Amino acid sequence: MKPELDEDALIGALSTGEVEPEGLVAGPAPALATLPPPRGFELTPKSPAASAADGEVLEVAMGPHHPSTHGVFRMDVVLDGERVLRLKPVFGYLHRNHEKIAERTTYLASMPYTDRLDYFCSLTNNWAYALAVERLAGIGVPERAEYLRVITAELTRLLNHSCLIGFLLHDMGTMGTPLMYAFREREKILDLFEALTGARMMCNYMRFGGCRVDAPAGWLDQVRQVVDDFPRFLEEFENLITTNEILLARSQGVGVLPAALAISASVTGPMLRASGVDYDLRKVDGYGFYPRFEFRVPLGDHGDVYDRYMVRVLEMRESLHILHQALRDIPDGPVLDPKAKLRNFRPKPGEAYGRLEAPKGELGFYLISDGGPNPYRYRVRPPSLINLTILEDMCRGHTVADAVVILGSVDIVLGEVDR
Amino acid sequence: MTRLAAAVPGIQLELVPNGSPGNPASLVVDPAQAVAAAVFLRDDPGLLLDHVSNVTGVDWLDTVLKETTRVKQVIDGVEREVEQTTERRKPGYLEAVYHLFSMARKQGPVVLRQRTANRVDKVHVASLTPVFRGAEFQEREVFDLFGIVFDGHPDLRRLLMWDEFQDHPMRKDYVEPDDYEYEPTPHDEVLDKARRHYPVGATP
Question: Cβ contacts (< 8 Å) between B26 and chain A: which residues?
Answer without folding.
Answer: 351
